[in-house]
Amino acid sequence: MSIARKIAVCAALVLLCGCSSVHRITVSYGKDYMDECPSRAKEGETVRFSTVIAADADVVVKVSGTDTLIQVSEGVYEFTMPETDVEIEVYIIANNGA
User: Fold this and answer.
1) DSSP 3-state assignment of 20?
2) Where are the domains of the chain?
3) Tens of pLDDT along 2-36?
4) pLDDT 10s digits, 30-41
5) CA atoms of 28 and 36, how far apart (whole Å)
6) How many CA atoms lie within 13 A of 83 on its CB side?
7) How far apart are CA 94 and CA 12, in angstroms?
8) What does the alpha-carbon distance between residue 69 and residue 89 come to, in Å, rounded to a whole number?
9) Residues 6+ apart with CB under 8 A from 38
10) Nearest to 63 by CA among 27, 98, 31, 87
C-alpha cells in the first residue's frame, strides 16, 4: 500500500471514529492569577480551569473563540472547546471597597 493510500485510510478512520482534533489553550494575560489550566483539549471537550479568588476585587475572565464560558463556582470556570485554539485572559479589578 502506498504512503498516500495509508494516509487516506488513516484520515477516513479518524472521520469515522468521530475523533476530534486537539487544540491549544494559552493564557495570554493574567498567568499569575491562574491556579490550574490545561494546555490542550479536544474539540467539544469540557475544559475546566481555576483562578485565584480575590478579596475586595472582581475577577474577570475572557476566553477567545467560545461563548460557552460559565462560572461553576467561585474561581472555577468551564467552557466547551471550540474547533480552534483559544486564549484565556484573567483580570483582577479592584472594586473600591464596594
Assistant:
1) coil
2) 20-94
3) 776 656 555 555 554 555 689 999 999 999 999 99
4) 999 999 999 999
5) 14
6) 2
7) 52
8) 12
9) 25, 47, 49
10) 87
